Amino acid sequence: MEEKSMVRQLPSVDEILRWPETASLIASYSRGVVVNAARRVLDRLREEILSGCREEVSSSEIIARLRQEVRPRLRRVINATGVVLHTNLGRALLSRRAQEAVKTAVAHYTNLEFNLATGKRGERYSLVEELLCLLSGAEAAMVVNNNAAAVLLALNTLAAGREVIVSRGQLVEIGGSFRIPDVMRQSGAILVEVGTTNKTHRRDYREAITERTALILHVHMSNYRIIGFTSEVPVPELVALAREYNLPVMSDLGSGSLIDFSRFGLPYEPTVQETVKAGVDVVTFSGDKLLGGPQAGIIVGRREYVERMKRNPLNRALRIDKMTLAALEATLRDYLEEEEALQNIPTLKMLLCPPEELRERAEKLAQMLEGLEGITVQVIEGFSQVGGGAMPTAQLPTWLVAVTVASLGESALLKALRSRVDPPVIARAEKGMVVLDPRTFSEEEIPLLVEAFRQVLAEGWA
Ligand SMILES: *Cc1c(COP(=O)(O)O)cnc(C)c1O
Q1: What domains lie within the chain, and their CATH numbers?
Q2: With 90 as the cut, is the pLDDT of residue 316 above it?
């Protein structure tokens, strides 16, 4: 009975819409969004009341819930994990020029598929093909939705109904259920595994070649390493072997970098240029891993193969949109001058940020956090990760801001930071403390981090 009268006392949607706080929400979002959100908030409160788990409902609580409910679901977060290419947090951030290019491409009509010289229909890839060829040394190039799509398209075009030889040591699974054997099946190609998990020899490949063979596939071990008693056939040797039988070689590089990171003390990763130079016929890689561009699957290689892929009807389903194209072109243009790429592309800047600079940023945040009540802060040494399945063994030395809050355990603090503040802060726990890695947050985000902790401490919830 009492619950029923509580339900009756709930305001109506119309009443909520008349509250002054609601007006500002309508101005920021839209009436439809707010009305819809108000209904959901009221429904949920009604359920909570009737199930007996509510004593009272205040209007300020209704407004707070409404605020949460109207927020767009895709939200900015602060990445304090130190994982640069965090797949769950959207991988690479775009350079300023790439952001501008996207803005232009979406606010105006563009020559996406229009040849301005001839006035006839153009090809969307032509806008980046020249750049990709210049940077990689390949004859031809095209771009699809992501690298998984690139691998699928290449296998389907070059090997549907025929056999593809892969070393057992390279049958990788990338996060999000991209598995080479599954992609192979989807493409219609038939997988022929050779060698063993730890060792594959040239003769293993040779013995597997038959008249049904369409392709030799090399997959870069992007997110794992096999160490100890191991051997794989180096790419140039695979190419030499394939030439003997007139077969193409494809390499799925995964990350695919245009810069040799070993020059900067990071682990060696084969570059796209080297792979093309070694004679590989088709090379595929991601746009948003080490390249630091938008999500995309880039294919470079011999013209005859790339042209066949462009004509494959499957390509229509995998093609990139104009925002991606705009961002990719702007990103690639920076690579024309390596120094520009290193200065402008956030992924590269984060990966190569000098430890002194990280320490300075950590100290600055620590100093500001120390001003808060109920918090213990220290700056400690630690490691960041590349992420995105790239350079899995790389340990990038960094300085971490380690925080403990007396009233909260580390998992409660992590939860509060990601669910109770705006923008949410994603951090990690280490040695019983919450640690924040300045490699992946910027100087400009420091005040937001401080505000996040201030809010968590003020709420005092456990
Ligand atoms: C990451 C990766 C992929 C998938 O690339 P997406 O761009 O995420 O689709 C495929 N192959 C390898 C070896 C990878 O590392």
Answers
A1: 3-70 (no CATH), 78-87+352-459 (3.90.1150.180), 96-344 (3.40.640.10)
A2: yes
